[in-house]
Amino acid sequence: MTQKNFHKFFTLYFIIFGIVISLFGAIISYNFQVKDIQKELDRKAKEISEIKIETILKPTIENMNNIVKSLANNEIIKEYIRTKNSDKKQELEEIFFAIANSNNAIMKAKLIDRDGQELIYVERDNKTKNILLIHEKDFQNKRDSDYFKLLSNSKKEDIYYSKLDLNMEYGKIEIPYKPTLRVAMPLIQDNQFTGTVIVNILMNNLFDAIGKSPSFDHYIIDKDQNYILHKNNQYSFNKYKNIKIDIKEDFPDGLNTIGVYIFPLKNILKNDDDALMILKTKKDYKKELIQEKINTAIFVFALTVILSLIMAFLASKTPSTLQEKLLRAHEKLNEFTSIIDKYVITATTKPDSTIVRVSSAFEKSSGYSKEELIGKPIGIIKDKERDKKIIQELWKTISNGKTWMGEIKNRNKNGEEYWLEQHIIPKMNIETNEIENYVSIGIDITTKKELEKIASIDKLTGIYNRRMLDEILQIELDVVKRHQSELSLIILDIDYFKYVNDNFGHLIGDETLKTMSSIITENLRSSDIFGRYGGEEFLIICTHTDKNSAFVLAEKLRKIIENHDFYKIGTKTISLGISSYEKNDNINSLFKKADDALYCAKNEGRNKTIIYKEKI
Fold first, then answer.
1. Residue 265 contacts residue 238 (beta carbons within 8 Å)
2. For 39, 52, 487, 490, which has the most beta carbons within 10 A of its beta carbon?
3. Torsion, Cα of 158, 161, 162, 165 (10° steps)
4. Residue 170 contacts by C-beta under 8 Å, 6 or more apart in sequence?
């Protein structure tokens, strides 16, 4: 056999061998991936149920429980039920008014006596959404209602939940439909039922939040298999709308079948519905997963075939022809970029940020079509609240021909927020050594960011919590040490706050904390970082600020608070302590200095601002 024929034989043998191995590997890979689809669906269903039930539904219901309990345990209510004192009634009307205003989901709040007669009644207006106080002439007697009959026979102060139904007024279902849950608690004195407090919750927004996901159709059914929530809203609450629909129309193979996931809600909605949340895998989503696995198998097969060809060329051709063959192999690889296009979020822009090319995955995440994107600036998906420092660092990095990596917040076509973890790579012109364009490769991390946000915000006030403040303070300390810049802390404490809780109750105390947080937030600088450190104590991280500038800010806040008229309690004051970063300071030492200054302000009569001194 001549050398030439040997090369041909060896090349052909190597190619055939590579194709067989590639095909075998692709088939095995596909089979394993198809088996993994069910595991992926199981994981996805569990993940969505935890978000919908544990993160959204459960906290909402627990919040309503706390509101009802606080009303039932209110001493003014107990006294009014006993004495019917008109002065107390006015106070109660103000309390119910404040409670209803505290949460947009509250549709009604009532106090009912032992005979079923409404005594206090506030209601949210359908058009203006304002809370209205209902006059006595419009009061109804609820002694014949199912929930009152049940509550009036209770001997314990337990939370009661009604069935999820459609709100009724004067014996008729209210139009437009208002999905309603009633949370009530009986008032028991000397082991006798004396009345009840009840709060009606409008469930529209809650159902919107828990009733949709891209991967599953969402349903909620009661113990009689009537729909409370249906993917087609026409059939939600079909029992109350007198619409007959057999559950087999949606679940012909029953509920205990592959692709259907059941999650009991009995431990949250503790009522007679015995409700179940059902997630049913969308047909298109499962097809998409299977197609994805097929595409992956094709990609693996094609890639290994190409690699086999390259190896054959390397083994059989002379070095002079090797480069030409490698280039041809590279051209073949480009045939499979459509697979990458579908699953990788990429965009290519000119140096002036004009978009010249985007992947299909980019279209899907942004909500825009390619036609809407090409020729437009990349700022079309820009979020107005982006961190300017991050954007400046980004441009500084890529303008110098270096790759930038980081997280960026964007807005899609519908105005919805989404996050990408991005790598932005400058592509250089080899001849001129100038930047020809930028290539951005991103991963969607929106779910991760949402979970981080939940973990960093104080639930009552909506500002940063202590955990987040500690993380930010450590970052700012590192920046100060690296760049030799200024940093100050302001710790502020509400004077005699215990008096508010003891004399006005924790609801008014909570309202005071929320109002205080709002006032301070509105009067801070854009560079200041503000959060609740615990109880009635707050922390302000003042970046690029020395102690004297921090004192000016602190005094401004102190005077604004001092002159504010707080609901129910009137005026209130705060005391503030200030410390500034000095060499070798850490979080503990910086915080202790501010805390010592605050302690000094308290000792000197309160309603003061004190800057830490070595011998304070």
1. no
2. 490
3. 170
4. none
Burial class (CB in 10 A: 0-12, 13-18, 19+), 509: buried
Single out the residue of 277, 215, 283, 210 nearest to residue 252, CA to CA: 283
Q: What pLDDT does residue 474 have? A: 94
Cis previous bond, 176, omega within 30: yes
pLDDT at position 202, please? 92
| DSSP secondary structure letters along 209-257 | HHSB-SSEEEEEE-TT--EEE-SSGGGTTHHHHT----GGGT-TT-SSS
Select from 141, 143, 140 the least CA-distant residue to 152. Answer: 143
Phi, psi of 281 (to 5 degrees): -60, 130
Query: CB–CB of 199/106 below 8 Å?
Result: yes
Model confidence, pTM: 0.46
**How many angstroms separate the CA atoms of 48 and 217, rounded?**
12
Task: Write down the pLDDT at residue 320.
Answer: 39
d(CA 526, CA 211): 37
Which residues lie closer than 8 Å to 103 by C-beta, 6 or more apart? 63, 64, 67
How high is the pLDDT of residue 432?
A: 86
The 3-class SS string of 252-274 reads CCCCCCCCEEEEECCCCCCCCCC
The confidence score (pLDDT) of residue 245 equals 93
Q: Which amino acid is at 219?
A: Y
Structure tokens belonging to residue 50: 């935890």
DSSP letter, residue 137: G
Cα–Cα distance, 503 to 479 (Å, whole number): 45
Q: What is the pLDDT of residues 517-542, one digit of tens each?
A: 999 999 999 999 999 999 999 999 99
What's the 3-state SS for 84-132?
A: CCHHHHHHHHHHHHHHHHCCCCEEEEEEEECCCEEEEEEEECCCCCCEE
Determine the residue type at 236: S
Question: Among residues 462, 489, 469, 476, which one has the least CA distance to residue 554?
Answer: 489
Shortest CA distance to 95 belongs to which of 129, 122, 118?
A: 122
End-to-end CA gap in the chain = 99
Q: Which residues pair with 609 in a beta bridge?
A: 576
What are the start-end ranges of the E strands in 350-392?
Answer: 355-358
**Looking at residue 353, what is its pLDDT?**
87
DSSP-derived letter for residue 51 is I
pLDDT score recorded for residue 403: 92
Percent of the chain with pLDDT over 90: 53
Do 202 and 178 contact (CB within 8 A), yes or no? yes
Distance between CA atoms of residues 591 and 426, nearest Å: 43
Cβ–Cβ < 8 Å for 215, 282: yes
Residue 126: φ, ψ to 5°: -65, -35
- Cβ–Cβ < 8 Å for 51, 70: no
- All residue ranges of the chain with pLDDT < 70 are 1-14, 17-18, 22-26, 29-35, 293, 297, 300-301, 305, 308-309, 311-338, 450-453, 615-616
